[in-house]
Prior knowledge:
By secondary structure, the protein is an alpha+beta fold. It is about 15% helix and about 25% strand.
Amino acid sequence: MDNKKQTCCICGKEFEGWGHNPEPVRTGRCCDYCNFNVVLPARISQLGTVIERPKPKVGDRIHIVNIDGEPDYKGREGVIEHIDDIGQLHGTWGGCGILPSVDEYYIIG
């Protein structure tokens, strides 16, 4: 199974190998990048350890994991161009704004 191609259940990108257990974020298998940047921080936060999520800012590049009610945005990437008065992110990924307290995304380093 080491060379079997799989699709990451978080970002939707293809990877080879066993992958990782994505619990508690999703079920299925996830890629190395999502394991390190999404799953492990989620697990640590469940332990009660405070991890400061980087505050988004104009110019940051993000990867959209999920926008509530907008399945077509899953896996899109773009650059934050504007943050409105309620903290909603707007950018080059399309017309939908991202509400950080509801939607899932991560900042790409």
